[in-house]
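HUMAN: Can I see a protein plus its fold?

ASSISTANT:
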Amino acid sequence: MNGEFHHVPVLFAAAVESLRIDPHGVYVDCTGGGGGHSAAIASRLTDGRLLCIDRDPEAIETLQARFAALPQVTVVRDNFFHIKSILAAQRIGAVDGILADLGVSSHQLDAPERGFSFHKDAPLDMRMSMTGRTAADAVNSLGQAELQRILFEYGEEKFAPAIARAIVKARVQAPIETTLGLAQIVADAVPAYARRDGHPARRTFQALRIYINGELDGLTEAITDLFDCLKVGGRVSVITFHSLEDRAVKRAFAPLAVGCTCPKNFPVCVCGKQPRAKLLKPVTPSAEELAENPRSRSAKLRTAERLIAD
C-alpha cells in the first residue's frame, strides 16, 4: 500500500450523532475509508457489533489493521450496493443504524497514483476498487457522443460538447494517459472566462469518476435497500457531496415518508397507508468546518428513521 489510507470525515459529529448509537446495537459503516466514522461508532459499543464495508483494497488493509483488536468490528471488502447479500453472508438480520459517506476519500484524492486529482500528474485511473476499466480506457475508447453525455449528465458540464470534441481530437495524436494531460485538454477547450471560476477540469474529473465507479447507477435503489435493512426505530444517514447524489438520496427517501393518500375531501382515512419513515432536517457544514475543510463545501447529511415494520 502506498502510504497510510486516511480520510478527513465531513459532518463527522453530526453523522455519528444522527445514528443515536445504542451500545448493544448493530451498525453498518458502508464506506469505511480510513475508519474515522467506524472508530467513533465502535467506541460507543459495548456488546454491540459494527460491520465496516469498503470496496477499496487500500482502505480494507487500513481498516483491518486499525480494528484488529476489536472483535466487535467486522471488515468486509464489497460495494454497499450489495448490502442485503452482505448482511445475509454475515448472518445479520435487521440493524440499528447505517451510515454511508458517498464522498471520495482524502487518500484517494491526495495519492497521486490513484489518478483522481487534476492537481497532480499521475496515470489517469480513478478506480475506487482498483479493478476494472480505468478513466484512461474511457477517454481513449468512448465515442464523442457518449463522452459528451457522461460529462453533461454526471458533471453537469455546460461545455461538454467542446470538451468531448477536444478529447477525441487529442487522442488521435496520442493516447490520453495522465491526469494533467487530460486537465490541459479540458482547459484548452473551454472559454477563457471559464478558467477563472475554479479549475476548469473539476466537472470533467467528477463525471469520469462517477462513470468509472458506477456511483449513480442504482444509487436510489441502493439507498432504499439500506432503509429496508433497518429495525423499527433504526436510522440510515447518508452524506452526499454534489447535487446528483443528493437528488438520488431524496428520490429514495421521499416515498418512504408518504402516508395517507386519500383525497383531501375525505373526512377520514380509508386507505390505511402510514409513512414508513420520518425524515430529519438535512444538515450542512458549519462555518467552522468549511474554514477547516474546504472539501466539505457541498456536503449534505440526510437521515431517515424507520417508523413501522413491513
